[in-house]
Amino acid sequence: MALCCHAEYSQETRSVLPQKNPPVGVRSARNRSRRGAELIEFTLVMLPMLALSGVLLNVSWGVFTKSTIQRAVRLGVRRGVTLTADQLPDGSDLTTIVKDTVQQNAMGMLAGDSRRQLIKVHYFKPPGVGSTDPVTDVSGDTDGNAAGNIMQVGVENYSLIPLVPMIFSFREQPVNNPLVFSVYSADRIEPTRNQPPIGQAP
Question: pLDDT tens digit string along 55-78?
Answer without folding.
Answer: 888 889 999 999 999 999 999 999
